[in-house]
Write a structure and sequence with these properties.
5 helices, 53% helix, mainly alpha
């Protein structure tokens, strides 16, 4: 069976992965962290840099790898993740 991060039980309905999804990725050897919101980024330069890198990467993916329908769908996984990180593309 595949890791929880690939199934519904490991995904957060609000976007991104939940604790169970992150734990399943960690068991596979990955080091994934929870999202950084704008208010958290104000307190830490490292968090702000991580958030900016995420924005750059995901906005590029949204532009190049999604269809027009998915790019404008508020319930698509990529748009939910961007919303969870408080990021505008």
């Amino acid at each position: 069976m595949s890791g929880a991060w690939t199934r519904k039980e490991g995904k957060n309905p609000a976007g991104g992965l939940n604790e169970r999804g992150r734990a399943s990725l960690k068991a596979e050897g990955h080091n994934i962290k929870r999202p950084v919101t704008a208010s958290e980024a104000k307190h830490s330069p490292e968090s702000a840099q991580r958030r900016d890198n995420f924005r750059t990467r995901m906005c590029g993916m949204k532009e190049k790898l999604t269809s027009a329908k998915t790019a404008h769908d508020p319930n698509s996984r990529i748009n939910l993740a961007l919303k969870r990180w408080d990021v505008k593309c």
